[in-house]
Amino acid sequence: MTAPLAADVLIVGAGPAGAITAAELARHGLHAVLAGEETGEADYDLVLSGAAMRGLASLGALEEVAARVVDTVELRLGQGAGHVLPEAVNAACDRRHLVDGLRRLAVTAGATWLPGTVTDLERREGAWHASTGDTTVSARHLVVATGAPSGGTPHATGLLCAQRYSGVNLTASIVLALPAPRTIDPAERPTCVWAVPGAQAGTCTIGASRIGSADPDELLETARAVLAEGDQRFAGAVPAGPLVTGVLNSGFAPEHSVRDGRLLVGDAAGLVNPFTGEGLSYAVQSALLAARAIAAHPDDPDAAGRAYTRRLSATFVGYFETATHAARRYHLAWRVLVATADDERPVSAKLRRAVLTPDGFSGLTAADLMPLPAPDVALLGPFLLACDEVAVSTVRKEWPFIARLLIAGEHSPHQRLRPAAPFFAALLAGGNPPDTAFVTLAAAIELATLGALAFLGPMPPRAAPGRRVDWAVASTVLAGDFLLAQASRLVAASAPEVSWSFADWLGELAALRSARIDPAGRSRAGEVFAALLEFPSRIGAQLGGAPPETIRALRDFGNHSGHAFLHAEEVLAVRGERTRLDVTLPGMLSGRLSAIPDILPEVTGGLLAGDPDARSRALDLAVTACRDAHRAALGALENVAHPVSARILESFVATVCAPCAPAPAPAPSPAGA
Ligand SMILES: Cc1cc2nc3c(=O)[nH]c(=O)nc-3n(C[C@H](O)[C@H](O)[C@H](O)COP(=O)(O)OP(=O)(O)OC[C@H]3O[C@@H](n4cnc5c(N)ncnc54)[C@H](O)[C@@H]3O)c2cc1C
Question: 37, 105, 196, 265: which to mutate for ligand 1, most atoms within 8 A of CB?
Fold first, then answer.
């Protein structure tokens, strides 16, 4: 028997989740013992999503695990051509390199590596005790990273398999294929197939996941056949490695991730997407969250457990519910995905991401971060957090992907570009501390804004003749209506005195929208965005008791900021960069979402695509219009006396206009003013 080991944290299981937990704990100066079986890892390639890559990069581990960036993800839905998933940057990585690299990383950071199976685990006198071979370990905290347990609930359990192939010409893409449902049974569970390039030229790994029972040989053969159908790259694929299988456990619920004082991470917590079988990014993220929760409460395991549950809820809100809903209603989800595959409206782009890729939600919510001094954050942060809670709890049951959209991203609520921020700042403008009762109204404003945006953008391609339901339109209308209805309900319940103004605002948005949809409509594109930001600024000032001239100034501020937002979108789109609303330039033009044709009628979409000169004229025009609107918004702020209010609003509009930086000088005050 070797001398007993005493540590701060014992981590059982040394797969990706366990090794990362140990590395992160060691970085926080805690003594972590990483105890795990040394099963020889089979050679096959894994897909690392963007979120997994960012987590690994934060540990400096991307080189250690020999990750290879693959910047195109092709999505294939049934038969037919693939769709490129924009900005779904991923990496490929050998499973053995990943696990060995992460274990090395943990040891280098200072963790103790203890190879072997952990047995005799028990909690006595406030500490955990366990054995590995002839070594006993005791520790205050316990992290369970033992991978997927067998025996979950049928709707959440399935099979994952993968095998390396040669003779495949796949170099620069990851292919993700969702075959059409095989039966007409509405309860049929999804199958997902993927192919990821190997490090050796001409090799790739083909993988598949299926919820429910499945035979691995049959599942992998299906996967190969699905990929080979109409795609010559897979025609000559021959197996070049063992068939590897594992249990898919997707029964995640934050409240079940701490059991009897043990923190469960990765697959052990059921953190696997039931739709795609992806689990690594959650293994990485949950490991980091668990380690940080323990580091924040090194002497109090119960507090660490509570903090971990909270952080998990916030990080994965809506995501697993969305994927689980989609998996349970595969027929519907598949049809909506097929119908909206080329639909560029923000609501469809975000839905696609919510179901298929966990990250990439930075668009509307987190593309640009609002910098604010700490005392302002201390004021604004709690208000926005409370607003998030109300908004999310209003929609998460019926439309969890919207809940995901509302709060996802890796940034604090106060940093995101969102209408609740100017609303809060405007409440302050009267000089009184903002009434927390208005949190619910802020949530209603955010929901209504999303609802209005759901209807904006290019129309999806026309339904094929004979198809009875246009799923793209149906899902958009349902999501948009649901949001607007929930927003109105919140206002009626929390601030009945503004119900009329709120209804007027929704009516105005509807009128502006329909004028945009109607090709003969006369409204200008910027008016929709102006209306979207004018209301929160004006009504906030009114409710906060600001004097009439300040209310007028804030109305103008909202208007100008809305126009500035649209022009900033145009600047991003013309430059070919991702816009906050997730639309491209052709999408903006065909959806009549751009002011460029209002100002330069001769500049058509085709001209913009092919003529650099027209492009540069359009860009100059959009930059100038954005800076003008920015300047006008700053001018309006001269009538806002409250310094914190003015500072938040200034930061808000500067963030809106960031794509057109440098910021303009404020408009000169009128002589004698
Ligand atoms: C074939 C296959 C292909 C996959 N492909 C992908 C992919 O391409 N992309 C992706 O994102 N996800 C993929 N996944 C899912 C992904 O591999 C998992 O989500 C991820 O490995 C989870 O990490 P983990 O550390 O939680 O668990 P695991 O990787 O399962 O590690 C758990 C470790 O704990 C050890 N252990 C268990 N019990 C004990 C004990 N009592 N004592 C000591 N050690 C113990 C196990 O031996 C194992 O080493 C795939 C899964 C499979 C099976």
Answer: 37
Q: Which atom of ligand 1 is nearest to the CA of 161?
A: 1
pLDDT recorded at residue 366? 38
- Look up tokens 């293994």; give the residue: 283
Q: For residue range 465-506, what is the model confidence (pLDDT) as tens digits?
A: 665 667 777 777 788 888 899 999 999 998 899 999 999 999
Q: What is the rounded average pLDDT for all residues in the chain? A: 85
* pLDDT score of 440: 94
55 lines ligand 1 (CB under 6 A): no
pLDDT digits (tens, 9 = 90+) for 251-264: 888 889 999 999 99
What is the H or E stretch that residue 349 is in?
A: helix 346-356
Sign of the alpha-carbon dihedral angle for 422, 562, 454, 359: negative
Ligand 1 centre and the CA of 272: distance in Å? 10
C-alpha 414, offset from chain centre: 17
Q: Which helix (H) or strand (E) holds 138?
A: strand 135-144
pLDDT value, residue 288: 96
Pocket flag, ligand 1, residue 267 (CB < 6 Å): yes
The CA 18 to ligand 1 mean position distance, Å, reads: 10
Distance 14 CA to ligand 1 centre (A): 9
What are 41's two structure tokens?
A: 């890892």
Distance 98 CA to ligand 1 centre (A): 11
What confidence tens digit (pLDDT) does each residue in 587-612 have? 777 777 788 777 777 666 666 667 77
Kindly tell me the sign of the dihedral angle through the C-alpha atoms of 159, 160, 166, 170. positive
